[in-house]
Amino acid sequence: MRGMHVRPACLPCLMTQAFNTARMATNDEALQQTVLREVAAYLEQADTAVCPAHFSQPIYAIVSRLTGVADPYAELRRRTNALALELLPDVRDWVSQSRDPLAKALHAAAAGNVIDAGINSEFDVREDMQSLLRRPFAVNDLPLFQSRLKRGSRLLYLADNAGEIVFDALAIDRIQRFAVQVTVVVKSGPIINDAMMEDARAAHLPELCTVIESGSADIGINWQHAAPGLRDAYTGADLVLAKGHGHFETLRESKHAGLFFLLKAKCPVVAADIGCRMGDLVFAHAALLRTAGADSKPRAATA
User: Fold this and answer.
1) Which 8-state DSSP code applies to residue 203?
2) Sheet holding 137-140: strands in order across?
């Protein structure tokens, strides 16, 4: 599988991300245009042989500097957390009444990945969740993941977005019933609607498990900016469950034997790399994805 780098399709997506963030920060159209011009100038001189996720933090910084708004998505994060908590009792019942509650809880966590303001400027959490809960995984390495859950094993759970993190908590509760030690990683500062410590608290995660910060406000994991203990937590984990596109983009070449990706494919570049369709739910073992990529053929689901 080739390393993730900026493709032509990524450039308009990054500009859309900048526009959406500028609109969240200000209604001043002249200021929005100024933001877009500066972002375009930045992208023109930037090295595109790097992971697309690494562009989000500089773009976000441009928006914040020009508009004076440090956290444009603060209200959206609060709203999606509140809505997810409203939906939680029904989703919890759906999980607990199933024959495989862990599988259903992880399915709900994957469906929650629809709450992504970086890629989807418009989403209906209630309607989209209901639809996705009826959709099976297109790539399904969940049985392999379940087989590796052993008493006393250590799982590092890389959270993605606010709102979504409420359903992550539901999955983590089920994982911990296997006597697995779970540590959750959230962002140290605002970047789009990615979950921070305050969102973890809203989801009651610190009451369930250890929650740590990444050390930066980067999409996915940027090891150059990471907190000192994060690499040790990553390499020392028996299993890593990485949520969302950003973690897929930044970790897809990682050789960690226990790395799994859990996401909804929301862009054609990522969908093509995985070998699935836009809109598919994916639970993929990273090593098996690399094998499929080396053969340049989509890998069929394992279940």
Assistant:
1) T
2) 137-140, 281-285, 259-264, 239-243, 154-158, 181-186, 210-213
- The burial of 232, by beta-carbon neighbours within 10 Å (0-12 exposed, 13-18 middle, 19 or more buried), is given as exposed
Which DSSP letter does residue 179 get?
Answer: T
Give the separation between CA 237 and CA 1, rounded to whole angstroms: 24
Query: Is residue 301 situated within a structural domain?
Result: no
Which CATH number characterizes residue 130's domain? Answer: 3.40.50.10880
pLDDT, one tens digit per residue, over 59-108 is 999 999 999 999 999 999 999 999 999 999 999 999 999 999 999 999 99
**Domain match, 127 and 180 both:** yes
Task: List, in sequence order, the alpha helices (H) in the chain.
Answer: 10-25, 29-45, 56-67, 74-96, 101-111, 125-132, 142-147, 164-176, 197-202, 228-236, 244-251, 268-274, 286-294
Which amino acid type is present at position 79?
R
Q: What is the pLDDT of residues 153-171, one digit of tens each?
A: 999 999 999 999 999 999 9
* CA separation for the pair 223, 227 (Å, rounded): 8
Q: For the packed helices 74-96 and 125-132, what is the interaxial angle rounded to 10 degrees?
A: 30
Domains: count for the chain:
2
Render the burial of 77-103: b for 16+ CB within 10 Å, e for the rest.
beebbebbeebbeebbeebeeeeebbb
